[in-house]
Known about the structure:
Blueprint: H1 12-20, H2 29-42, H3 47-51, H4 54-60, H5 66-70, H6 74-80, H7 90-109
Amino acid sequence: MDRCFGNGPNQELYAKYHDFEWGVPSHDDRHLFEMLILEGAQAGLNWETVLKRRKGYKNAFHQFDPVKVANMTDDELEFLRENPGIIRNRLKIYSARKNAQVFLSIQKEF
Length: 110
């Protein structure tokens, strides 16, 4: 298969993402919220860095349940700064809660 990325050796993670997710339309709100959280974490980093931590993000952010993430406390978010399964940047962690709140607002409107 021709790919725009994920062709090299040891790039199975990229290849799987390319073949089954990238550019594939999704209408599943939970999956769209997951992509929002992961894209926010990726800012300034390469995508592979985030893909390798995807499971950690899923566990840290309540299986990408936007209602639960929107209601996370500051203490819960601060606790995540010690979690090696995610990018531990404070602003990126706190942005997940804000993005969840906005996501729910948009979801309610539409």
